[in-house]
Amino acid sequence: MVSRLMLGCGSVGYALVESVAEWPGSLVVVTEDESRVETLRTEGISATRGDPTDPGVTKGRPRVDIAFVAGDDPEKNLASARAVRETHPNAYVVAYAGTEPDRTISDELETLADRVIAPGTLITDHLLSMTDQDTAFRTQELRRTLRDIDGKLGIFMHDNPDPDAIASAVALEGLAESVGTEAETCYYGAISHQENRAFVNLLELDLRNFDPGDDLSEFGGFALVDHSSPGVNDQLPEDTPVDVVIDHHPPNHPVEARFVDLRSGVGATSSLLADHLEHLGIDPAERVATGLLYGIRVDTKDFTREVSESDFEAAAFLLPHADTGTLERVESPSISPDTFDTISRAIRNRELDGTVLASCVGALSDRDALAQAADRLLNMDGVNVTLVFGFMQGTVYVSARARGTDVDLGETMRAAFGQIGSAGGHADMAGAQISLGLLGEVEEEEEASLSTIVGEIITDRFFETVRSRPGPDEFESAEEHVAAFDIQLAESDDE
């Protein structure tokens, strides 16, 4: 529950009370004006008579999340801000400068408060916009968590990160360093998609690539962006203690971290980072703004897929700081021969079940080519859903796309593969990873046989799930899913 304290209650403070009191949590008003105290109490507001400039008044309150300094006297407001900052250094302080403050008072308030509001006709609206329950306080909690990290913060993206994950991680690194916490942007896997490589190179982003099993003891804290659990779509140990999670994907498991910002109604994690930057009053550097804007555009498919008001607001905030020329260069990279080869194999090996297409491309050298193949095959006449998959290093990687259909790919992929691997995504774009198990030991000369076996199992399972949608999951437990998958593999191997 959010605890709010209002120190002083002049004309501005009184105008704020009605709206602030409706927010979830508690509100206590401390003012020297006895008549104001009585008026507030008759309106059901918790108010007490006291000196808002006295540190003893604020010290007696065990917790203050948001403090409003809202008297009319500039000198008393400055003293109140000093008092609450002394006793509750982590509180989010919004201070009204008071009536006709001199420059010295305004300058010192700037150093003490998170937000200083100068006198003006729109002051009440401005204060309310700065202290919304779901914005300023969430951002303050993030800043507090980052500030409390003891040592270097490792910011980990999901495996083989996309632009949304990369941009979000780089932005979070800048946020951490703005509060004095050293941070480093990290990932497992590879950045092999040509647009993603161009994105990193053109913006000169400094990213650190880890291998499974690498020593992580140099980090005093961990943050996850664009995914929400260690060991799920990353190579971190599952028991890694997480300090920060920022993600826009709906989780299918409990998320544990000191700070969690999960907003599944927003189209991109980059929008969430832009929101935090804006509420901290930070103008992003050009490369950060360009990256975040590109991350939003990619994850919302140029504002046509699962886009929200927050995504448009974030883009409007970022655009004046971004380099649109660099964006154009990122979006027109050359396509590698490996990608063309994967697309070619996907076309040759395609299987159709009505408007649903599935294709196994066999062994992979570039897993990012799967997504491009799935996109390309979606342009085929009469195809509304595509599923393209291949295998490398003992794992089957799956990429799916949909358009103009009532199939929710995220839910369909979870139903088909979630209990035997990791799966999920958006309604029209999703993916999965499934371990080959014992078949991962098949010799190279048996690759054709392995492609046939895996192809039949994945294709049949996906087609069956799409047909049966939205029926209940056919198995009751993860163990039954795994057992059934193993039986299918064994039967295929025997054949």
From TrEMBL:
It comes from the Archaea. Residues 7-119 form the RCK N-terminal domain. Residues 154-296 form the DDH domain. GO terms for biological process: potassium ion transport. InterPro entries: DDH_dom, DHH_sf, DHHA1_dom, NAD(P)-bd_dom_sf, Oligoribo/pAp-PDE_c-di-AMP_PDE, RCK_N. SUPFAM superfamilies: DHH phosphoesterases (SSF64182), NAD(P)-binding Rossmann-fold domains (SSF51735). It holds the Pfam family TrkA_N. GO terms for molecular function: nucleic acid binding. Residues 354-443 form the DHHA1 domain. This is NanoRNase/pAp phosphatase, hydrolyzes c-di-AMP and oligoRNAs. It comes from Haladaptatus litoreus.
